[in-house]
Every structure is written in C-alpha cells, then in structure tokens.
C-alpha cells in the first residue's frame, strides 16, 4: 500500500474505500472464475500537492495486455470527439514542414487514424497488443510498448523530436509519473506541447461519479495537482479546458516554461477549485457519504423491484460497471445480465460480480421492465438508439449523481 504520494512523496490521506475489487476490464469466461484477482480499491489525497490517487496498485502488465477489452472506437460520440481532436491538432500544432505527433495509449487508433489519413508523421505507443493491431489495421504506426523514459529515448533517436505528445484517458493510468514526464521532456521539441485529457476529480466529487474510481485510474487529476506535477518536472501548465467526455473531463496542455502564455482558464479553474475546497478532506468526506448513500438507495431499489417481480437488466458494461456492481454487491440475482456492444466483452462475465454480458440484441428479447444504465456517460446516444424500450413502457435507472428512474 502507498502511504506516500507517487508525485511528491507527501503524505496520503485515505478518503474513500470501495472494498475488494477485481480489475475493471478483467472480463472473464464463466469457466475462468476460480482464482480471480482482487485488490483493495481505495483512494487518498496528498496533503502536500493535492494529487488524488489509489492507495493500492495493480501491476500495469495485469491491466494492459493482449486481452485488453476497452475499445476506444466503441461509441459514435467518442469517434467524433477524437476526430475533432485530431483535426484541431492538425490545424494548430502540426503545421510545420514535417510535423510529428506521438500518442501515448492510442488504443484502436480512434484519434491517430485521422492523423494517418492526413499523411502526418505519427506514432502510437500502445502496450495492449490486441487493440494496437486494430490501430495498425487503420493505417496507424504503433509501437507496442509501455511509454516511459526508456521508450521515449528510443523514439527520439529513431524519429526525432515530437511537436505534440498526446494522451487521452491514459496519463492518469501511468503510475510511474517521474519516468513518464522525463520521457516527455526527452521527446518534446522546444516549442512542443504535451496535451492530455483525463477524468476530473471535480466531476467525480460533484456528480458522485465514484464509478470512475477503478484499478486503471491510478490518479484523479485536478488543475491544482496537475500544475504542481508539471512544475515539479520542469513544465508549465498553459491551458486547462473542460470537455464533456466520460461525464466531464479536463484537457490539460503543458509546455516548456515561458514558451506559451498561460490561458485565463488555468487561473479561473484554480480559483474555482480553491473556492470549492476540492482537495479538502472535509469535502472529500462528504463525497464518501454521498457514495454510501447511492449504494444504499440503489440496492434498496433493486431489491424492491425484485420483490415486485419486475425484471431489471444492465445496459453497458464499461469498467465503471465493475466498480458499482462490486461495491454495491449487485450480482445476477438482482441484474440477470447486462448488454454491451463490445464483441470481446460478450460471452464473458463482468469481473467480480459475474453479471453475464450479452449482445445488445438480447435487450429487446423481450424488453425488461427497467434498464440499469451503467454506461451513463453515453445516455443520449443509448437512449436514442433504444427509444422503443421507453415507448413500450420501459424505464431507465440512473445512479449518477443520485439514484433515480427516468
Ligand atoms: N486514448 C483512448 C481513449 O481515450 O479512449 C484509449 C484509452 S484506454 C482507457 C487506455 C489505454 O492506455 C489502453 O489502451 C492501454 O493499453 C494504454 N496504456 C496504459 N499504460 C500505458 C503506458 N504506460 N504507455 C502507453 N499506453 C498505455
Ligand atoms: P465507456 O463509458 O468507458 O466509453 O464505455 C461504454 C461501454 O458501453 C462500452 O463497453 C460500450 C458500451 N456501449 C454499448 O453497449 N452501447 C452503446 O450504444 C454505447 C454508446 C456504448
Ligand atoms: Zn503529492
């Protein structure tokens, strides 16, 4: 267990404990449940630099491998978001004579495929070989390695300096921060930028989105903690922009000190975090109380519906569903199965809670009375797709920011 901050070695204070949990994307076949891996999912905050982080850590090789289940291109919303991201980088940062971009955690190429189509030099660094193959099939150049100082030095010597180092929903997964940032330092051109967009501690606490807490998310960034981390490693935080992905994230831009003028948004968000007391233990304690409340309300609702003979099925099996079902003790007795469009999750069980994952076609065969929406961040897309469910009297159960039926 970590008692000291991974960034600054300050003291960590625990603020939430979500119990014994498996790896969030460790979907398994029904015959593979013996000896399933569990660890204690608890998060703490550094009393010095305010970085929120997990107290116990799952080794990265156990999280990212040839059977990694998360496919970034799984939703139309994400495909559009990352295409727009790529186009924006092409217009703003990748405008020189022979620009070069490196993406840490390119997954199935959801972002870099647009860069590749534009004929711009790029390299994805992606240790999960199965998703790296999908990216290659889209014309993306990929190095199947974990990004660290050593990998970065190799890239620099083979390809030269990068104008942009990009990461999305990946930088907060990397526990070896010092090696990561030394690697970015070695790789980045003098005027280059390190851009990354990650889950936001402010959204997690404001919306009681505790299901964002799982083994892969080692850090829960805030503008305050990212600025401290950047400065410690010789970078300056020059922009911070709220984006809607995964319920509300922040896109951070780091540059070399003095290379860019920091935006007003950085100052504004820092002030907002201070006013909110985002990193205060008292506020985090209130967050923990709300998390417990959601658990009580959700379990009570599901038990009541079962007692009334109603059928409830789950919709979406994101990593988030592992946290919620294991924390709340929701098993197949309360939710007999969950539908998910990701082929590699179908036929498997949600880790720990062992809800069977079926293809989306199972949803209407026949429709349940209620659908528990685990993929709540895709609510608009999913509810539009499944309009007929509601028209026939079906109702959605949401648990973020509180338990309710819509
Ligand atoms: N960027 C995509 C997105 O935003 O949807 C994918 C995010 S996915 C949640 C995280 C990805 O980071 C996985 O594909 C994983 O294999 C990769 N990853 C984890 N640790 C890494 C590391 N040290 N270097 C490079 N990639 C890493
Ligand atoms: P994410 O929130 O981490 O992006 O994961 C969303 C999960 O929900 C992913 O496993 C795919 C699934 N999903 C569906 O099953 N149907 C859908 O229409 C959408 C948008 C997502
Ligand atoms: Zn710290």
From TrEMBL:
<dbReference type="InterPro" id="IPR013691">
    <property type="entry name" value="MeTrfase_14"/>
</dbReference>
<dbReference type="GO" id="GO:0032259">
    <property type="term" value="P:methylation"/>
</dbReference>
<feature type="domain" description="C-methyltransferase">
    <location>
        <begin position="244"/>
        <end position="401"/>
    </location>
</feature>
<dbReference type="InterPro" id="IPR029063">
    <property type="entry name" value="SAM-dependent_MTases_sf"/>
</dbReference>
<dbReference type="Pfam" id="PF08484">
    <property type="entry name" value="Methyltransf_14"/>
</dbReference>
<dbReference type="GO" id="GO:0008168">
    <property type="term" value="F:methyltransferase activity"/>
</dbReference>
<protein>
    <submittedName>
        <fullName>Class I SAM-dependent methyltransferase</fullName>
    </submittedName>
</protein>
<keyword id="KW-0489">Methyltransferase</keyword>
<feature type="domain" description="Methyltransferase putative zinc binding">
    <location>
        <begin position="5"/>
        <end position="62"/>
    </location>
</feature>
<dbReference type="InterPro" id="IPR013630">
    <property type="entry name" value="Methyltransf_Zn-bd_dom_put"/>
</dbReference>
<dbReference type="Pfam" id="PF08421">
    <property type="entry name" value="Methyltransf_13"/>
</dbReference>
<dbReference type="InterPro" id="IPR038576">
    <property type="entry name" value="Methyltransf_Zn-bd_dom_put_sf"/>
</dbReference>
<keyword id="KW-0808">Transferase</keyword>
<dbReference type="Pfam" id="PF13489">
    <property type="entry name" value="Methyltransf_23"/>
</dbReference>
């Amino acid at each position: 267990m970590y008692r000291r901050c991974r960034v600054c070695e300050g003291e960590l204070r625990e603020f939430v404990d979500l119990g014994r949990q498996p790896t969030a994307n460790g979907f398994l076949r029904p015959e593979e449940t013996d000896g399933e891996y569990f660890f204690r999912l608890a998060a703490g905050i550094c009393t010095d630099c305010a970085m929120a982080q997990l107290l116990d850590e799952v080794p990265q090789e156990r999280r990212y491998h040839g059977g990694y289940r998360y496919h970034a291109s799984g939703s139309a919303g994400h495909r559009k978001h990352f295409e727009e991201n790529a186009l924006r980088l092409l217009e703003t940062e990748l405008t020189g004579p022979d620009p070069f971009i490196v993406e840490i955690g390119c997954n199935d190429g959801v972002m870099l495929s647009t860069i590749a189509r534009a004929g711009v030099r790029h390299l994805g660094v992606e240790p999960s070989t199965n998703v790296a193959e999908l990216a290659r099939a889209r014309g993306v150049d990929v190095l199947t390695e974990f990004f660290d100082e050593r990998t970065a030095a190799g890239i620099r010597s083979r390809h030269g300096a990068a104008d942009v180092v990009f990461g999305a929903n990946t930088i907060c997964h990397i526990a070896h921060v010092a090696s990561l940032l030394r690697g970015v330092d070695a790789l980045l051109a003098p005027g280059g930028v390190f851009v990354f967009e990650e889950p936001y501690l402010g959204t997690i606490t404001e919306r009681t989105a505790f299901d964002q807490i799982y083994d892969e998310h080692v850090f829960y960034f805030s503008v305050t903690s990212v600025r401290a981390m950047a400065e410690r490693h010789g970078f300056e935080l020059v922009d911070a922009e709220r984006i809607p992905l995964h319920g509300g994230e922040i896109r951070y831009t780091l540059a070399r000190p003095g290379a860019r003028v920091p935006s007003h948004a950085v100052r504004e968000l820092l002030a907002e975090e201070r006013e909110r007391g985002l990193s205060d233990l008292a506020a985090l304690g209130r967050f923990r109380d709300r998390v417990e409340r959601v658990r009580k309300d959700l379990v009570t609702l599901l038990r009541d519906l079962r007692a009334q003979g109603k059928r409830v099925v789950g919709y979406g099996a994101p990593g988030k569903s592992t946290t919620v079902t294991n924390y709340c003790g929701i098993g197949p007795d309360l939710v007999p199965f969950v539908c998910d469009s990701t082929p590699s999750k179908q036929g498997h069980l949600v880790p720990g809670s062992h809800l069977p994952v079926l293809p989306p076609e199972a949803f209407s065969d026949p429709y349940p009375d209620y659908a528990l929406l685990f993929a709540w961040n895709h609510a608009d897309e999913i509810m539009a797709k499944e309009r007929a469910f509601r028209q026939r009297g079906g109702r959605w159960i949401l648990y973020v920011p509180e338990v309710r039926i819509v």
